[in-house]
């Protein structure tokens, strides 16, 4: 074996470990262990040349199928040479235990120091066994289920060699036009924070050195979800107030939950690209929040600062990015090509390079890669693990929990199980790829259970399928393809005939999975293509329609809300989509999802969100004069409110009470309500608590979610639900430019949706 100083340094640190560390210490990283890691990292840093340190900060996209010929020329050959020289710290988009092993072997055995690589991948909602899109999972408001879903994703992904996922995306967004709302947890900073924590804990577990856990990555830091006009990558111009109160909380929660990496973002924020934003990365993240993991750029975002008009060339971009605190360069080649010279020119401090390298090496230690660089590369284990039965059961459970019953007139749902003629209409009902969404690089096309397949499992009814119309033209297989809506109505009449003869019509309409996600912003929020016309044509012959929506963003479907008796929000639910939908439609699962994002009536209302400001001319339902904050052609209210979602149970709220009238910083106040399940069906309800700070140093939203609880009740059961409100829940970023609560009057609301009206009030006295 080649001499490796690094391997020699292990012996020293091993000795240190034996002498200095109690072996009975807990598995999760204790402060003692952290110190040990610091010492180990320092011992390696001492051995590293400047080139090698910069190499750790360099991330390349997978460039070579190792089973194929060795790249001889072009970019791939250069990357290969860099890899052998120890000038690569991480790779992305490499998958499969065999591939990862082969590349890791080069890093470990052929480079001077043998430092293992990190392998990153967009495991956004599952690797091969796909769970619901994150927006759908958020609709469950079920933090335990969300955490378990991330655990499945981590276990499956780590079995194919991946040790780092670029998730969760914790960007808050109020704009359904933005295609990436599917990847986040919706519009609310509180819900978004809780979900960020759950997902991070699911991915990373309690022990990063376990074979089943991966590094998580909170992205995109920051403001990406506020792209102007919902157009992806667009400029973001927002106040400090919005940044602090709305955008940053889930990122802060991610740090508090122990996330080990951050990704910055493509957008500029108030004139400064996020990748080159010192205030965000050095002052807030690494300064105020004391984050000691590392920051990776977004794909090519260092060099994109040239197009932003912020850097004159790649060298200048590298200088700006490192000085602003971006530690790793994803695919810009800017660091590897320029950082050394920038240090020599005195434009970049070697200490900053060392700091970035230290952060990266620390994560490698935490993952246990220095003990066993091949721990994620076991082909037998990979075979046993990928696609395990338990994973399918898990994603099915998550999919059912993600479904939101938006409307259910005359108890059209659940369907009876026998003796009926059911018409199933819509191309999406027979689509086995679309439910996987757009982030499913590890999954096979056609691998989802379609609604048609799910419905067929119920044999008591007579089921007839008719497509009616496609959603888009052409192929739908490639992640990077743009989808063109079809105009073809030639199969309408067949579907209308099937519907005419049916007792109930199930129409599966909405967006193809590839019409959502990165780069897929929309200016219209209705049903794409000819689907609205199809819906109306079918409605003319049969009004008993259950509309099942497949979509990655809130849709504006006012006609459907007005006319269609039952509407089920089924998003893009992943591999087990069709089974989950069928089980909900047939009542074998009682839905309990609630919307994590407001549904507009009209795209013109966007951005629309529940935690809006009152204004000086507040919204009235029916303004009597023109000079109110309103539209002359549309209501202000949403089509479906944030937090809305029905159940087959009937939940009734009553008796909101508070245990006192005021409280101070050392106390709390208890807010209680009685929840009754006034039905014969057992069910779950997400009880939501909102507050309103009536007078403050900055104007405050009319409502802010501050707590919620998922409560299960038997038929006719009642339960008193009590929330404790404390000072922390009243904090916001005040005119003093810090997070604090202010004394004053507050309203508190408890109910099953943000349009709750049952309220109480209290006073907070800050001492
Ligand atoms: C996305 C990131 C993603 C990265 C790597 C970018 O285009 O914005 O979210 O993690 O690509 O695939």
UniProtKB/TrEMBL annotation:
Reaction(s) this enzyme catalyzes, per UniProt: Hydrolysis of terminal, non-reducing beta-D-glucosyl residues with release of beta-D-glucose
EC number(s) on file: 3.2.1.21
InterPro entries: Cellulose_Degrad_GH3, Fn3-like, GH, Glyco_hydro_3_AS, Glyco_hydro_3_C, Glyco_hydro_3_C_sf, Glyco_hydro_3_N, Glyco_hydro_3_N_sf
Keywords: Glycosidase, Hydrolase, Signal
One Gene Ontology MF term: beta-glucosidase activity
Domain (Fibronectin type III-like): residue spans on this chain: 685-754
Cited Gene3D superfamilies: Glycoside hydrolase family 3 C-terminal domain (3.40.50.1700), Glycoside hydrolase, family 3, N-terminal domain (3.20.20.300), Immunoglobulins (2.60.40.10)
Domain of life: Bacteria
Pfam families, per the entry: Fn3-like, Glyco_hydro_3, Glyco_hydro_3_C
Keyword Zinc-finger: no
Membrane-spanning ranges: none
UniProt record similarity statement: Belongs to the glycosyl hydrolase 3 family.
PANTHER family documented for this protein: LYSOSOMAL BETA GLUCOSIDASE, PERIPLASMIC BETA-GLUCOSIDASE-RELATED
Name of the featured protein: beta-glucosidase
Gene symbol of the encoding locus: bglX
């Amino acid at each position: 074996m080649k001499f490796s100083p690094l391997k020699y340094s292990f012996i020293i640190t091993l000795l240190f470990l034996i002498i200095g560390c109690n072996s009975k210490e807990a598995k999760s990283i204790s402060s003692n262990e952290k110190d040990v890691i610091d010492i180990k990292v320092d011992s390696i840093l001492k051995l590293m040349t400047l080139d090698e340190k910069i190499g750790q900060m360099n991330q390349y996209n997978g460039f070579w199928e190792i089973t194929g010929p060795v790249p001889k020329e072009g970019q791939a050959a250069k990357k290969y040479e860099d890899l052998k020289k120890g000038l690569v710290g991480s790779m992305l988009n490499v998958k499969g235990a065999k591939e990862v092993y082969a590349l890791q072997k080069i890093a470990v055995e052929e480079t001077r120091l043998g430092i293992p690589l990190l392998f990153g991948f967009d495991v956004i909602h599952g690797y091969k066994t796909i769970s619901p899109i994150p927006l759908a999972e958020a609709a469950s408001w079920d933090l335990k289920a969300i955490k378990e879903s991330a655990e499945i994703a981590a276990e499956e992904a780590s079995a194919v060699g991946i040790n780092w996922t670029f998730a969760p995306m914790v960007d808050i967004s109020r704009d359904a036009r933005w295609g990436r709302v599917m990847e986040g947890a919706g519009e609310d900073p509180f819900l978004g924070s809780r979900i960020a924590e759950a997902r991070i804990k699911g991915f990373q577990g309690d022990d990063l050195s376990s074979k089943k856990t991966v590094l998580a990555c909170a992205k995109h830091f920051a403001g990406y979800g506020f792209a102007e006009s919902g157009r992806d990558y667009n400029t973001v111009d927002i106040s400090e107030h919005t940044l602090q109160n709305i955008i940053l909380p889930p990122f802060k929660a991610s740090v508090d939950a122990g996330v080990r990496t951050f990704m910055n973002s493509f957008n500029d924020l108030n004139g400064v690209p996020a990748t080159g934003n010192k205030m965000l990365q050095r002052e807030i993240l690494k300064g105020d929040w004391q984050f000691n993991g590392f920051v990776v750029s977004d794909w090519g975002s260092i060099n994109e600062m040239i197009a932003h008009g912020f850097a004159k060339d790649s060298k200048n971009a590298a200088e700006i990015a490192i000085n602003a605190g971006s530690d790793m360069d994803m695919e810009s080649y800017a660091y590897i090509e320029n950082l050394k010279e920038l240090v020599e020119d005195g434009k970049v401090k070697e200490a900053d390079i060392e700091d970035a390298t230290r952060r990266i090496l620390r994560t490698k230690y935490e993952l246990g890669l220095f003990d066993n660089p091949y721990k994620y590369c076991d082909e037998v284990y990979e075979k046993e693990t990928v696609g395990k039965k338990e994973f399918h059961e898990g994603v099915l459970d998550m999919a059912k929990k993600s479904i939101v019953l938006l409307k259910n007139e005359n108890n059209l749902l659940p369907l009876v199980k026998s003796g009926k003629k059911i018409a199933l209409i819509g191309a999406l009902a027979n689509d086995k790829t679309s439910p996987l969404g757009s982030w499913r690089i590890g999954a096979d096309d056609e691998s989802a259970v379609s609604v048609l397949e799910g419905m067929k499992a119920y044999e008591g009814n007579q089921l007839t399928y008719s497509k009616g119309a496609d959603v888009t033209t052409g192929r739908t297989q490639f992640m990077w393809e743009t989808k063109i809506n079809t105009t073809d109505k030639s199969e309408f009449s067949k579907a209308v005939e099937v519907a005419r003869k049916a007792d109930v019509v199930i129409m599966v309409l909405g967006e193809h999975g590839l019409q959502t996600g990165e780069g897929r912003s929309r200016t219209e929020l209705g049903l794409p293509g000819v689907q609205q016309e199809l819906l109306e044509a079918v409605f003319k012959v049969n009004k008993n329609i259950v509309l099942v929506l497949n979509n990655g963003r809130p849709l504006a479907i006012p006609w459907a809300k007005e006319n269609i008796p039952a509407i089920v929000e089924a998003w893009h639910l992943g591999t087990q989509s069709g089974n989950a939908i069928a089980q909900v439609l047939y009542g074998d699962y009682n839905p309990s999802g609630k919307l994590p994002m407001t549904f507009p009536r009209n795209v013109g209302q966007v951005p629309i969100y529940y935690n809006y400001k009152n204004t000086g001319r507040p919204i009235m339902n029916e303004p009597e004069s023109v000079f109110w904050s309103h539209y002359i052609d549309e209501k202000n209210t949403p089509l479906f409110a944030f937090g809305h979602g029905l159940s087959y149970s009937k939940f009734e709220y009553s008796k909101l009470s508070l245990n006192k009238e005021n409280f101070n910083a050392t106390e709390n106040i208890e807010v209680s309500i009685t929840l009754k399940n006034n039905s014969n069906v057992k069910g779950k309800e997400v009880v939501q608590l909102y507050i309103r700070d009536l007078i403050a140093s900055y104007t405050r939203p009319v409502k802010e979610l501050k707590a919620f609880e998922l409560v299960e009740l038997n038929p006719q059961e009642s339960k008193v639900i009590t929330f404790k409100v404390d000072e922390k829940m009243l904090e916001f970023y005040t005119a003093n430019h810090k997070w604090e609560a202010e004394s004053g009057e507050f309203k508190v609301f408890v109910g099953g949706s943000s349009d709750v009206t049952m309220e109480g009030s209290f006073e907070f006295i800050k001492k």
